[in-house]
From TrEMBL:
Enzyme Commission code: 2.3.1.225
GO biological process terms, semicolon-separated: 7-methylguanosine mRNA capping
Major site of localization recorded for this protein: membrane
Name the UniProt record assigns to this protein: Palmitoyltransferase
Family note: Belongs to the DHHC palmitoyltransferase family.
Annotated gene: CGT1
Highest taxon of the lineage: Eukaryota
Positions of transmembrane segments: 257-277, 289-310, 402-420
GO CC aspect terms: membrane
Any Pfam family: mRNA_cap_enzyme
Reaction equations catalysed: L-cysteinyl-[protein] + hexadecanoyl-CoA = S-hexadecanoyl-L-cysteinyl-[protein] + CoA; a 5'-end diphospho-ribonucleoside in mRNA + GTP + H(+) = a 5'-end (5'-triphosphoguanosine)-ribonucleoside in mRNA + diphosphate
Keyword annotations of the record: Acyltransferase, Membrane, Transferase, Transmembrane, Transmembrane helix
Length: 446
């Protein structure tokens, strides 16, 4: 589940196995080798084989001293599933397949033959398990059934391993609750194999010691690493091997142009109107307050616009620090050569972190993947279509400033209009200048 603080639940089986090998088993072996001591507790990793090695598995199985009762097909790409893993498949030859039932013996009279055995199974209720009749009855066949008939009380209420025999015949009594000879015979049946051994009492310390000393006599085969896929999966995917970022939305490209056009037009108007007015009307407020303010505001607006379009948005860039470790689901995606991960949801991590399966990097809480900019940004607020950029806590100040400057520009224009209604008009400058210039000349000629 967790190893050295690393949450392994979202890791695939292969990664978990590799961790067990590299962080538990091998260090233990190395430590023992260093101390030149032996240990009574042996840790071994089961061998896992690829699906295409099925032939080898069958060959190995034939040589096993204890025989084999089937194959377990384990999914390797799915994260840890607590309880039952629905993706895991256990296969057994049909003749080896057994099902466990709880037996309920129904006896009728003293006659040993008067016996029917109900097969019960447990259903998980809301809070407790409920034992219910499957509708099936035990086939009256086999050696174990003979034993049951001799001593029904030893079998009643016990868990028994049963095997389906197509050749068996089963008697289904018409009365489910008490013994009856009325009923019908059906083809096929569950034949009793053996009773399940229930776990015995907890062994005491001496027993455990004895067991361990016996275990130490058994020398395990040397560790073999037969999981190529582990190596393949764990091979380092370098930053440059990560799939390209998804293509940015068109708004990212046309947004800044729209902003540039609208802001330029507004600046032209907000600066132009007071400037023209100051040429025609004489007003100290216009000259000493409004004009300087609009020019400063215009300059600031240009700086702010540039900073929003080209400045820091809190975009998370790929680096060793944020791209690793690559979760296995993402790793599989990368190794399979699939850059597109629309069907793979983001992967949760520790401390509110999550892994973006579009950027292929880890981001902290509060970060968001913008579907227009196609990047993860920290402190995301919204994507602004007007500027074509994400507005985050990094450029929020600029964003608010440019909105405030809009009101400054609008206010300057309204004030200018009010002023020109009341301020005295200037004497037309060109006329005044020419009269001054002309006068001495005129006088000269006069
Ligand atoms: Zn992202
Ligand atoms: Zn964005």
């Amino acid at each position: 589940m967790c190893m050295c603080g690393e949450d392994l639940t979202h890791r695939t089986l292969l990664y978990r196995l590799q961790k067990a090998l590299s962080d538990v088993i091998l260090p233990k072996e190395q430590l023992l080798a260093l101390r030149e001591s032996s240990d009574n507790v042996q840790l071994m990793l089961k061998d896992f084989f690829e699906l295409w090695q099925l032939g080898d598995v069958t060959a190995i199985a034939a040589e096993l001293p204890h025989g084999t009762d089937g194959l377990v097909f384990t999914p390797v790409m799915v994260p840890y599933a607590p309880g039952t893993c629905p993706a895991l498949l256990k296969w057994k030859p049909a003749e080896m397949n057994t099902v466990d039932f709880k037996l309920q013996v129904i006896q009728g009279g003293d006659m040993k033959k008067n016996i029917h055995v109900k097969l019960l199974v447990g259903f998980k209720g809301k809070e407790t398990w409920q034992v219910k009749h499957t509708g099936h009855w035990l086939a009256k066949m086999g050696d174990m059934f003979k034993k049951l008939r001799e001593d029904p009380t030893a079998f009643d209420g016990k868990i028994a391993e049963c095997k389906w025999h197509a050749s068996a015949k089963t008697f289904t009594p018409s009365d489910q609750l008490k013994f009856t000879v009325n009923g019908s015979w059906e083809d096929g049946g569950w034949v009793l194999q053996r009773l399940r051994e229930l776990p015995g009492p907890v062994p005491d310390v001496a027993e455990v010691r004895e067991m361990l000393s016996r275990l130490s006599c058994f020398s395990p085969p040397p560790l073999r690493r037969s999981y190529d896929l582990v190596d393949e999966l764990q091979q380092d995917i370098e930053l440059r091997d990560l799939p390209a970022f998804p293509a940015k939305g068109s708004n990212y490209y046309w947004g800044p142009w729209l902003a540039l056009a609208v802001v330029s037009a507004f600046i032209l108007e907000a600066v132009g109107i007071p400037t023209l007015a100051s040429q025609s009307y004489k007003s100290d407020v216009l000259e000493l307050v409004i004009l300087p303010v609009v020019w400063i505001a215009a300059f600031t607006a240009v700086v702010v616009l540039v900073s929003i379009v080209f400045g820091e948005t809190g975009e998370i860039r790929r680096s060793d620090a944020v791209c690793y470790p690559i979760p296995d689901r993402a790793r599989a995606l990368i190794l399979l050569g699939r850059g597109k991960s629309d069907d793979l949801p983001n992967i949760g991590g520790l401390n509110g972190e999550s892994y973006c399966t579009r950027c292929f990097l880890w981001r902290s809480e509060g970060a968001h993947h913008c579907s227009t900019c196609q990047r993860c940004v920290t402190g995301f607020d919204h994507h602004c279509s007007f500027f074509g950029r994400c507005i985050t806590r990094h450029n929020m100040c600029s964003f608010r400033t440019i909105i405030a400057l809009f009101f400054v520009g609008a206010a300057a224009q309204i004030l200018t209009l009010l002023i020109i209604n009341t301020a005295p008009a200037r004497t037309p400058a060109p006329y005044a200048a020419s009269s001054l210039m002309m006068e001495p000349v005129g006088r000269y000629y006069n």
